[in-house]
Amino acid sequence: MKKGLPLILVFICGILGIIQYFAPHPVVQDTDNFFRNNLLKILAAFALVLGLGSLLKVHMDKIKRKRENWQYSWVLIIVFIITSIIGLFGGVTGEGPLPTRIGSFSFDNQTIYDNVIVPLGSTMFALLAFFMASAAYRAFRARSTEATLLLASAFIVMLGVLPLGDRISPHLPSFAQWIMDVPNVAGQRGILIGVAFGILATALKIILGIERSWLGGGGE
Amino acid sequence: MKIIDILAKIDRRIIYLILLVVVILPLIFPSAQSVRVMPPVEKFFNAVDNIPEEKALIIDFDYTPQDMPELEPMAIALLRHAFKKRIKVLALSLYVQPLGLAQRALTQVTEEFNSTAETSADSIIYGRDYVFLGWQVGPILAMLSMGESITNFYNIDYYGNRTDTLLLMKHIKNYNNVGIVAALSPSDIPRYWVAYAQNRFGVAVGAGVTSVSASEFYPYLQTGQFSGLMIGMKGAAEYEEMVEKELSVAGRRKASESLPSITYAHLLIIAFIIIGNIGHFVKRRQK
Questions:
Q1: pLDDT per residue as tens digits for the range B63-88
Q2: Is A141 close to B263, i.e. CB distance below 8 A?
Q3: Residue A217: its pLDDT value, please?
Q4: For every residue of B56-101, which 3-state class applies, written as one string?
Q5: Inter-chain contact A158–B266, Cβ cutoff 8 Å?
Q6: What is the rounded average pLDDT of the residues B1-28?
Q7: Is 50 exceeded by the pLDDT of residue A219?
Q8: Which of helix, strand or coil describes residue B178?
Q9: A37 contact residues in B (CB cutoff 8 A)
Q10: Contact B174, B147 (CB under 8 A)
C-alpha cells in the first residue's frame, strides 16, 4: 500500500495528462481543467510551504549542531523572517498596513529587491567574465583539427555578432549567422530529438511503474 | 625566448585588470553604438508591430539580476514599442525572483511616457493599457491555463486587484485575444511556451535569450515556431535601434551603450586566445 498508492496515483495522473491532448470530450477537458486550476495549484502551494519548512529545518539543525559556517544560517533565518513580514504586511511598494518608511529611509519589498538582491546577483554573475577570459587564455588551444575548427568558428561568430564585424566585412555577420543557422541547428536538432526520446521513455517508465527510484529506496 | 615565456604565462590578475579597464572605460563614457539589425530581431519587431488592435502582447519577464544586463534592455525596448503603438500589455513572471525586475521595467517605461503625456488618452494607465499579472504557482500550469481563461488562473494581479474588474481584462480572455507571447528568459522557458501554449492553443511566441544559451533556440526560429529571436546585448541593441528609428521613441539605450564594452572585451579575449596559442606552439616546437 505504501508504494502501491503512489504508483496508482502517478499512473492515473500521467494518463490524464496525456489523454487531454487526444480527447476533446468535455468530461476529459473538465477533469483536466479541475486538475490544473484547482488541484495542482493547491499541491504546488503545499510544496512551497514544505520547501520553506525544510529550508528552515535544515538551517535550525545546522545552528543546533554548530556545523561548519553555522553563523550564516542565522543570517538566512533572520533575513527570511524580516523579508517575509515586510512582504506579507508591507505591500509591494509600501502600500500595505505595515509602515515601510522611516523618514526618507524606505525598506519596502521593491526597495529591498532593488538595493540588495539586484546588486548581489549582478555582482556574482559579473565575476564570471573574468574567469572566462582567464580560462579562454589558458585552455582554448588549437591542439587538434577539431579544436582548430572550433576555435575558428568561435572567432567568426564572436566577431560576426559584434558591430565591429560589420565594419571588418559586411559578409562576416552573414557568415556568423550561417554558422548559427546551419551547422549549429543541425547539431541542436539531433540533440533535441535524442532528448525528446529520452524524456518519452523515462515518462512511460514512470507512468507504468517500471522506474520506481522516485519512490525512494532505489526501486527495491 | 623570454617574451614567449612571458606570453605563455600571463598572470591571471593581469588578465583581470586589463579586462576590468576595457569593460569599465566605455561604461564611464557611454555612447550609444549604431548596429545593423539582423533578420531574427527584425522578424520579432514586425511580429509585435503587426499585433491587431484588439489583441494583447504578453511579456513574460523571466530574467533575474544575473541576466538583467542582457534581458532588461529587451524588456524596456518591447514596452516602449508596445506603449508607443498602443498595444495592450499583459506582464507576468513564471518565477518569483524576476517580479521585482518586471515591476522596475514597467515603472520606468510608464514614467517615460507619462512624463510627456498631456491628456489621459496620451497617458499609460494601469488596468487600461497594461496589467501586471504577477506570479502564480507552476510555470507550465500558467501556460496551459491561460489558454482557457487568464482571469480564472490569475484571479488577482500583482497589486492585489481582482483581474476580472480591470478594464483591459474584459477584452482579453485567453490566447485568442493575444497577438504574441514575448518570453524573456535565460532558461528553457521560451521552449516551454512553444510546447504548451503554441502547440495546444496556437499562440505566436517570440523569445529574448542570453547569448550563452542562444544556440539552443535557433531550431525553433528556423521552423517558424518562434516569430522572432533577440539574442543577448546585441539583440537588445538591434531592437532599441528599430524602436528609435522606426517609431521615433527616444530614451536611454542601455544595450547600445554597452556594446563598446562588449566589443572591446571580446577583442581582448580573442587577443588572449591568440597569445596563448602562440606561446603554446612555440613551446611545443622547442620540445
A1: 999 999 999 999 999 999 999 999 99
A2: no
A3: 65
A4: EEEEEECCCCCCHHHHHHHHHHHHHHHHHCCCEEEEECCCCCCHHH
A5: yes
A6: 86
A7: no
A8: strand
A9: 145, 152-153
A10: yes
Joined grid coordinates for residue B146: 491561460
Partner-chain contact B276 A134, CB within 8 Å = no
Residue A134 and residue B15 in contact, taking contact as beta carbons nearer than 8 Å:
yes
Residue with cell 612555440: B282
B103, B142, B170, B200 from B131: Cα distances, Å: 11, 16, 12, 24
Q: Please tell me if residue A79 touches chain B, with a CB cutoff of 8 Å.
A: no
Q: A97 versus B209: which is more confidently predicted?
A: B209
Residues facing B29 on adjacent strands = none
Per-domain residue ranges of chain B: 1-32+254-287, 34-252
A23 contacts chain B (CB < 8 A): no
Query: Per the CB < 8 Å rule, is B158 touching A92?
Result: yes
Q: What is the rounded average pLDDT for all residues in chain A?
A: 88
**C-alpha pair distances (Å), B2 with each of A133, A138, A178, B14, B274:** 23, 18, 41, 18, 18
User: What CATH number matches the domain at B34-252, 1.10.1760, 3.30.300, 3.20.20, 3.40.50?
Assistant: 3.40.50
Over range A121-143, report the average pLDDT. Answer: 88
The alpha-carbon gap from B280 to the nearest alpha carbon of chain A, in Å, equals: 8
Cell numbers found for residue B75: 524588456
Per-window interface: A 28-57 vs B, CB < 8 A: 33, 36-37, 40-41, 44-45, 48
Q: What is the pLDDT of residues B16-66, one digit of tens each?
A: 999 999 999 988 887 777 788 989 999 999 999 999 999 999 999 999 999
Q: Do A192 and B65 touch (CB under 8 A)?
A: no
Cβ separation of B145 and A137 shorter than 8 Å?
Answer: no
Q: Are A109 and A87 in contact (CB under 8 A)?
A: yes
Chosen from A84, A134, A174 to mutate, greatest number of chain B CBs within 10 A: A134
